[in-house]
Amino acid sequence: MSDRRRLLGQKGEQLAMRYLAQKGYRIVEQNTRTKQGEIDLIVQDDKTLVFVEVRTRSSWAFGTAAESVTWKKKQKLRQLAMAYIQAQQQPIASFRFDVVAIFHPGGNDRSEPSEPVIEHFMNAF
Question: Which residues contact 36 (CB under 8 A, 6 or more apart)?
């Protein structure tokens, strides 16, 4: 992955965390790694544990950020979530999968001031 894409992804995750925190979610973990891969964000929404996939785009040349969450990625996230849940010391009664999609046209260029557009898809899959 190029440095430019990695930086855009990091910026998107920071925006998503700030957005979710403002909405009352409690950030539990960021960039949680398992043997199978990484979960972008794990947050708490009341009594529900939420696994959040963050997607950030700086253009629509290859579709929207939300459209980039493919069937294969959804399957991978389900696997990662199950591994995380099984590793916990306490039972988790309720969980869901959300997607935070961010369009940030100035996201790769610090000199270009533009406001990101954030969409939150609860129970995305």
Answer: 76, 79, 80, 83
DSSP readout, 55-96?
A: EEES-SBTB-TGGG--HHHHHHHHHHHHHHHHH-SS----EE
pLDDT digits (tens, 9 = 90+) for 64-106: 999 999 999 999 999 999 999 999 988 899 999 999 999 988 6
Q: What is the pTM of this model?
A: 0.90
Rounded-to-integer distance, Cα 57 and Cα 55, Å:
7
Q: CATH number for the domain including 30?
A: 3.40.1350.10
Domain that holds residue 55: 3-121
Per-residue pLDDT tens over the stretch 18-39:
999 999 999 999 999 888 899 9
